[in-house]
Specification:
This protein is α+β, with helices and mostly antiparallel strands. It has helices at 8-18, 48-62, 69-76, 88-96, 143-151, 185-197, 206-213, 230-238, 273-303, 310-319, 327-347, 350-370, 376-390, 395-415, 417-433, and strands at residues 25-32, 35-42, 82-85, 100-104, 110-113, 159-166, 172-179, 225-227, 242-246, 252-255, 435-436, 439-440, 485-486, 492-493.
Length: 494
């Protein structure tokens, strides 16, 4: 890295050459009691009030007869976060992230003043992980504010925040949050190692970073969890997991992740355990039906109609009497139509999106039946599949199930129920082979030896919180106990 010159004119000339045609970069010359100084910052991403009051006013009016920018820094700058910069690359990076650089004549040291003031939409409410109970705030695009939202919920000095930058050109700020005494050292080391290996021009979103650090990029199943909820992030950190906050995105990465966590909703822990257990089981069942119903329909109607009750088989045959297409084409037409409606509803403005999805589905389905393109039974199957997919609380898992659905449809169309069950077995084998930072993906259902039923207490059903005394598998073995058990004499014991 090229160090600063002692000549102020040389330093300014070099920086102006670097920022040539960058009209949003502000160069301001001023004098602090006769001492020539230069100020550099990026317009519109700095706090103008801080620059005017805490920096310029103090230096130009209240400054003493100093002839050193470092002495002026100590005596007059009224900003808490101030540091020194000795090379041009540090200065360039500081200017582009919203800090202000002060240069003085006759010195090869600059002063970096924290004056960040990015445009921000504040703390919004959750949109993709909506809950009936619990907090309504969610993450925003400002990484530093997202860190504060987590710190607000974890008032413990054991919560560590390790910052770095990723992206040769974007220099995106990354913050890794974890509980020092609860996290597994091997998981933390592996996470940091993978982040250090990322060498790319730019990281625009947490989804970019997720794809660079995941283990099996060929798998359709997510191996890391994305969330926009600070309460879910704090709960995950308390369990021993690691949160990776990426600047410029409202979604935080949580690692490790098992299949189980994608079916957990924040509402599960704010509701009573009976209703939470019922809803949790319904989500798992909905995931199975969303992936399997179309394929099972094809297998039964085409290859095994004798397994369908006679009255129902006659109804299906009657609805298909005027349909000119094979069953596989009929199912694919409706499934792809619903996929297009889903995408259209997402891209349209929020008030219109839901209306288009519902009304469009009804109109297209009825029109297709009246025209004899598809049977009424196929419309019911496609609608039920879509409803089941909406019951899953994680978008990434929904998308994975959509991929699996088409795989099962193809196998069922070729081999009937044999192909269907072969597809199911292949998916289960694939899931059992996945790991997320060393944790088996299907844990606690398989993939590890368990001495008790700790993780089963929060899997298909959720037992009362008083029974979940231990942390899940993610936690350090020395910190598994999170709630003390009360003995007969009223004393707390492990």
């Amino acid at each position: 890295m090229q160090e600063l010159f002692y000549s102020l004119d040389q330093n300014i000339a070099h920086l102006k050459d670097v920022f040539k045609n960058c009209d949003d970069i502000v160069f301001r010359e001023f004098y602090a009691n006769g001492y020539r100084c230069y100020m550099i910052y990026t317009d519109n991403i700095v706090d103008g009030g801080t620059i005017e009051e805490a920096v310029l006013t103090n230096l130009m009016v209240r400054g003493h007869s100093e002839n050193s920018i470092t002495k002026l820094q100590l005596n007059t700058i009224g900003v808490g976060e101030v540091s020194e910069a000795k090379d041009f690359q540090t200065i360039i990076d500081a200017v582009l992230i919203g800090d202000t650089i002060l240069l003085g004549d006759g010195e090869n040291i600059a002063v970096q003043v924290s004056t960040k003031g990015w445009p921000s939409r504040g703390v919004p409410s959750a949109e993709t992980e909506v809950t009936l109970l619990g907090p309504k705030d969610s993450f925003c695009e400002q990484g530093s504010l997202n860190t504060v939202l987590v710190r607000r919920r974890i008032r413990d000095p054991k919560l560590k925040v390790r910052r770095s930058k990723i992206g040769r050109r974007s220099k995106t700020d990354i913050a890794v949050l974890y509980m020092e005494d609860i996290v597994r050292d091997e998981i933390l080391d592996e996470t940091l190692k993978r982040l250090e290996k990322v060498d790319v021009d730019a990281i625009i979103d947490s989804g970019y970073l997720q794809q660079f650090i995941e283990e099996s990029f060929m798998s359709p199943f997510p191996q890391m969890q994305l969330t926009e909820r600070p309460d879910k992030t704090a709960a995950a950190i308390y369990e021993g997991r690691i949160a990776v906050i990426v600047d410029n995105t409202p979604f935080v990465i949580l690692v490790p992740a098992t299949l189980n966590v994608f079916f957990q909703s924040a509402d599960d822990y704010y509701e009573r355990w009976q209703i939470s257990s019922f809803l949790r089981f319904m989500r798992f069942a909905a995931a199975f039906f969303a992936a399997c119903i179309p394929a099972m329909y094809i297998a039964l109607v085409v290859f095994h109609p004798n397994l369908i009750p006679t009255p129902l088989a006659l109804k299906i045959a009657g609805s298909r009497a005027a349909v000119p297409f094979p069953t596989i084409i009929e199912v694919l037409i409706m499934e792809l139509a619903f996929e297009l409606l889903r995408e259209a509803g997402i891209r349209l403005p929020s008030p219109a999106g839901g209306t288009i999805g519902i009304v469009g589905g009804i109109i297209i389905g009825q029109a297709a039946v009246d025209a004899g393109i598809v049977g009424a039974s196929v419309v019911i199957i496609s609608a039920l599949t879509g409803i089941c997919s909406f019951a899953i609380p994680n978008v990434a898992m929904v998308n994975s199930i959509r991929v699996v659905k088409y795989l099962l449809i193809v196998l069922a169309a070729c081999f009937g129920l044999y192909g269907f069950w072969i597809g199911v077995i292949l998916v289960l084998v694939h899931l059992s082979s996945l790991e997320s930072f060393g944790i088996p993906y299907l844990f606690p259902f398989c993939g590890g030896s368990v001495n008790d039923f700790t993780d089963f207490k929060d899997s298909l059903i959720r037992l009362p919180l008083i029974f979940m005394r231990k942390r899940p598998i993610f936690a350090n073995k020395g910190q598994t106990i999170r709630m003390k058990k009360e003995g007969k004499n009223g004393n707390k014991k492990s």
